[in-house]
Amino acid sequence: MVLILTAAVFAAIGLLLGGRGGYLFSLGGSPFFMVAGIVFLLTALLLLMRKASALSLYGLFILGCLGWAIWEVGFDWWQLASRGGLVIVLGFVLLLPAIRRKLGPAHRRDNGIAASIWPVALPVLVALGVAGYAISHDPYGLSGTLPMNVADATPAYGGNVPDEDWHQYGRTPFGQRYSPLTQITPDNVKTLKMAWTYQTGDVKLPGDVGETTYQVTPLKVGDTLYLCTPHNWAIAIDAATGKQKWKYDPNVGLNPDRQHQTCRGVTYYADPQAAAGAPCAMRVYLPTSDARLIALDAANGKVCESFADKGTLRLELGMKYNPAGYYYSTSPPVIAAGKIIIGGAVNDNYSTHEQSGVIRAFDVHTGALIWNWDSGNPTETTPLPAGQTYTVNSPNSWSVFSVDEQLGLVYLPMGNQVPDQLGMNRSANVEKYSSSVVALDINTGQDRWVQQFVHHDLWDMDVPAQPVLLDLKRNGTIIPALVAPTKQGDIYVLDRRTGEPIVPIKDQPAPGGTIPEDHASPTQPISGLNFRPAKLQESNMWGVTLLDQLECRIKMHELRYDGQYTPPSLQGSIIYPGNFGTFNWGSVAVDPERGLMFGMPTYLAFTSQLIPRDQVPAKKQDDKGSEQGLNRNDGAPYAVKMGPFLSPIGIPCQAPPWGTVAGVDLNNGKIAYQHRNGTVHDMTPLPLPFKVGVPGIGGPMITKSGIVFMAAAVDNDVRAYDLATGKVLWSGSLPAGGQATPMTYELGGKQYVVQVAGGHGSIGTKPGDYVIAYTLP
User: Fold this and answer.
1) Per the count of CB atoms within 10 A, which of 94, 290, 333, 397 is most buried?
2) Residues whose CB is less than 8 angstroms from the CB of residue 154 and which lie 6 or more positions away in sequence, other chains included
3) Which parts of the chain sit beneath pLDDT 50?
């Protein structure tokens, strides 16, 4: 019976590999799987015939499979394991005495003499030896060391923030995510312990949309931390103890049409003209997911009724169309020169009748509109007259802005016009400002320069991250620089006065072939500093076993793929990197003293398929907003179906690593190192500590002592890295997903590091409501 069952397993696998492998071969793919199917079927037949030659045949196949795998992927253990794991396991099955005693001549079987072990055992031992070498020899990545000498002992941080504080999302208006604190060092960080934990009480609800996420970076002013929660509660807590001081709930309710339910931060403001202790002398501005901006007294959380309409500014004013849940601000606004400047997130691919992406500056005290910059009508920046409306669906800016008050400029990372994957009927203004960084005059709102990173964007490659400002030395001259990470993997380094490149930018050919109504740009820009991945090949397809890897190979051939910038199509296209981005809103961190950068390049392929309008199913009553799955594009001739490129068992089709960390010397524009980041211990039923390199979303923070702190990865750990080498110095396990950028501060002679852990709906990490502080014992 054991022999028959084993033969049946071999036959079933052979039929799958042979049938589907033959189909792959007909698509122009590898013949290996078809051949493997034949070998499995022959092995099954020989087992049923009780032939010992079944062992010899399978042993030769193990060696052949090993040779093929090394030829395809070298000694990458993760890729070898997916090709050989099932093969070796079945080899061990054939080595069982209960199997071998059933094989060979009848007289040997009758005497209980088992067939020889060596035809299979030797190939298995060879394969295990190769696996042992591969697991200890990772061919991926770049090892190097960043120079830690100080190039600028008095760098510009971009704001008068005390060293011990963290006043803005990136600590200062420059968005560097850099702290001058030095108490925690590479030598003592391994002793870091939890100081306190605070739970907000704002948890994911049954009626919430899928992407309910906790992405906040708290602010620290004096002895208080200020933060917001996914449902837009504003909270102040004691920075020494984690005890709540006050909480304000704006009651945003639930709306299934919101694509995101999140808050990345609040904005702090101290009125220089107000008397100390006066009501609202210090304010916290809270953006909400029902399109409000609310001013609160930082001392007690009470609404500052002198701002706007009794403390509340309605951001939907001036919108021609205002469907509830389609527009809101997920990121904290910036304050400069007495103005609070804010953009908004416009739902991707819901409708052609959505709100404008207008950027507006309001008087920080009164809420009066001072200027508005609408990328669909960019020259008219005087406040919109009553009765008029902003341009429908104009490119928006949903991430965090940066400010250089000395230059009088605010820097916007720009999105694109929805529908994202359809470029028909875009105006010249839309084509100019989409997927770019734009510098606006703080006082007038007029644009001073624009640098575009994707031409005629059909892939939702909006600029997702806060531009980072620092000064760089080139040829003995200090250049005010701007660093812009992008979804496609480029790091653009520009002169922030003019937008001109410091690191060269060139145009390179891009694939064409869109639907008849549209067109693709023949070229796309690429920065001389980039983390773009190589073009996918069939050999890059991955799986837990040969079977699901085969399905990924078939799927790759069935989809359209001509490399990066393959246009969306009716058959479905592979978009790599996908719109999740090589970099996303977590941005990068820079050390302005040394001119160094640390980031987290992520690599996930997505698919994008256009669906003709007459094939779009009716909307269901319980449908909830999402950027994945079917995006309806109401009013457009096509909907779009999007999502990660996954195997039948739900893991990425392309081989790991999917997540890395990297260090760059911005003084010369060179990448010093890039390593796999993160393990699968929170992604599998067993907590396996395998360092695969997992995806993540969030950002890093650097301290002057040369440490980088970051969580972000899907394994629910917060880590400290050596800035010089990128190696992990310490890690702590979080009670939920850490998809928020950490911050640090000092109070009472102690340096603290704070990480929010609340999970991320899109990547499936554990939800929670934790704010956790660490310090030295």
Assistant:
1) 397
2) none
3) none
The tokens 């709306």 sit on which residue? 255
- Residue 14's SS3 state is helix
Amino acid (1-letter code) at residue 229: T
Which residue is listed with tokens 């790599």? 576
| Distance (Å, whole) CA 664 – CA 530 | 10
* Catalytic (active-site) positions: 460
Burial 119-141 (b: 16+ CB within 10 A, else e): bbbebbeebeebbeebeeebebb
Q: Report pLDDT digits (tens) over 186-208.
A: 999 999 999 999 999 999 999 99
Whose tokens are 């420059």? That residue is 174
203 vs 729: CA distance, rounded Å: 32
Spatial strand order of the sheet with 339-342 comes to 334-336, 339-342, 359-363, 369-373
Place of tokens 């902003």: 390
350-352-355 Cα angle (round to 5): 85
Helix, strand, coil percentages (3-state) for the chain, rounded to 5, are 20, 30, 55
**Which of 23, 99, 266, 54 has the alpha carbon at shortest distance from 168?**
266
Report whether 75 contacts 137 (CB < 8 A): yes
Q: What pLDDT is recorded for position 684? A: 61
d(CA 301, CA 224): 12
Task: Categorise residue 710: left if φ over 0, alpha if ψ from -120 to 50, beta otherwise.
Answer: beta
Do 43 and 10 form a contact (C-beta atoms < 8 A)?
yes
What gap in Å lies between CA 503 and CA 478, rounded to an integer?
15
Classify each residue of 741-750 as buried b or exposed e, where b means 16 or more C-beta atoms within 10 Å of its C-beta.
Answer: bbbbbbbeee
Give pLDDT, residue 628.
80
pTM here is 0.95
Return d(Cα 61, Cα 119) in angstroms, integer.
11
Check whether the bond before 657 is cis (ω within 30° of 0): yes
Local structure of 38: helix, strand or coil? helix
Q: Which amino acid is at 737?
A: G
Q: According to DSSP H, which parts of 410-545 are helical?
A: 428-433
Dihedral of the alpha carbons of 547, 552, 555, 559, in degrees to the nearest 10: -170
Q: How far apart are CA 672 and CA 697, in angstroms?
A: 22
**Which pLDDT score, from 0 to 100, does residue 583 have?**
97
Give the span between the Cα atoms of 146 and 596, in whole angstroms. 8
E-strand stretches of 266-319: 267-270, 282-287, 292-297, 312-314
Location of structure tokens 């310090």: 775
Q: Are strands 638-644 and 606-612 parallel, antiparallel or unpaired?
A: antiparallel
**Helix (H/G/I), strand (E/B), else coil: 549:** helix
Residues forming beta bridges with residue 664, ordered by sequence position: 597, 671
